[in-house]
């Protein structure tokens, strides 16, 4: 299978030059558009990798399903769903698209910025530092990587330039979705997005979702099977921003992208896949990463449809 992965990276490498590295967060603008890596972890325990799979990058929006999992583990499905809905917005991930309080539960989902900021308030902890620490610990556990940590430079860069997210957070505050200090909530969110991972980490996290809440090898259960169903369903409809429909048709598996260039893909009962390529398409998804997943899905019949 490694030969297949190497071939797919070679075939899709030209797309790395067609995407654009994110620049609205200054530290992300330093990314190398030539980077391209993939890691696949299968249910039989075998793993395969190619390209720049060891290279670290910030998780960005791929943290959102982990935020959702922790909120579910802390509060249960009924309460979480009463606070943040599950419907796709059909809007860009950072859109300010809700101006009526009665629409919040229907027009937020955990995979867009506004919904994810609200998720931070649902995590339990005596303060937001403890909440972030619990999120970081869960990320390490799911990935099987204790070296995962905060990228301080990206965090500070996000904090300095995150005015759009501040606007989203103050809108949430206006409508009573946030009761705590907005800057404390945002600090947790900026740190969450600035966790440093690699393709292997994303593949392991995706595998736990594919394995319905159980870690690879040990089969230790981290969260209930129902939560895997809940998260995977939202990833399928909302995980690739307003490109989720095309992705469902062309790849056909639950997945989450981030503007750092990462994609975590979940092939239920079969495998987790992590991809990294920082050149983005117009919707904020890794362009070469999507092309690799499209070809891999065709070759291995990965689509759930």
From TrEMBL:
Keywords: Acetylation, Hydrolase. Its EC number is 3.5.1.2. The keyword Acetylation applies. One of its GO terms (biological process) is L-glutamine catabolic process. It holds the Pfam family Glutaminase. Substrate binds at residues 61, 113, 158, 165, 189, 241, 259. The keyword Hydrolase applies. InterPro entries: Beta-lactam/transpept-like, Glutaminase. It catalyses: L-glutamine + H2O = L-glutamate + NH4(+). GO terms for molecular function: glutaminase activity. NCBIfam families: Gln_ase (TIGR03814). Homotetramer. HAMAP family: Glutaminase. Belongs to the glutaminase family. This is Glutaminase. The lineage of its organism: Bacteria, Bacillati, Bacillota, Clostridia, Eubacteriales. The gene is glsA.
């Amino acid at each position: 299978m490694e030969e297949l992965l190497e071939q797919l990276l070679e075939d899709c490498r030209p797309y790395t030059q067609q995407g654009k590295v994110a620049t609205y967060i200054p530290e992300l603008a330093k990314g190398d558009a030539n980077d391209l890596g993939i890691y696949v972890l299968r249910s039989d325990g075998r793993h395969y990798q190619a390209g720049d799979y060891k290279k670290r990058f910030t998780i960005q929006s791929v943290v959102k399903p982990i935020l959702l999992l922790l909120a579910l583990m802390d509060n249960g499905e009924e309460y979480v769903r009463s606070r943040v809905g599950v419907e796709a917005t059909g809007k860009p991930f950072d859109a300010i698209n809700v101006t009526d309080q009665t629409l919040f539960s229907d027009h937020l989902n955990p995979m867009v910025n506004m919904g994810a900021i609200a998720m931070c308030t649902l995590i339990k902890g005596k303060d937001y530092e403890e909440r972030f620490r619990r999120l970081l610990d869960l990320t390490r556990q799911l990935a099987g990587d204790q070296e995962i940590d905060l990228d301080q430079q990206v965090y500070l860069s996000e904090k300095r330039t995150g005015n759009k997210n501040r606007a989203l957070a103050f809108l949430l505050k206006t409508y009573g979705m946030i009761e705590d200090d907005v800057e404390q909530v945002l600090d947790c969110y900026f740190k969450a997005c600035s966790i440093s991972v690699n393709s292997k980490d994303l593949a392991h996290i995706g595998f736990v979702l594919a394995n319905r809440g159980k870690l690879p090898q040990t089969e230790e259960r981290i969260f209930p099977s129902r939560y895997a169903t809940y998260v995977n369903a939202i990833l399928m409809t909302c995980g690739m921003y307003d490109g989720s429909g095309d992705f469902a048709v062309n790849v056909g598996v639950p997945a989450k992208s981030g503007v750092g260039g990462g994609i975590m893909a979940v092939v239920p009962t079969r495998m987790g896949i992590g991809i990294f390529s920082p050149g983005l398409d117009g919707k904020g998804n890794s362009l070469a990463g999507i092309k690799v997943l499209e070809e891999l899905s065709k070759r291995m019949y990965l689509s759930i449809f």
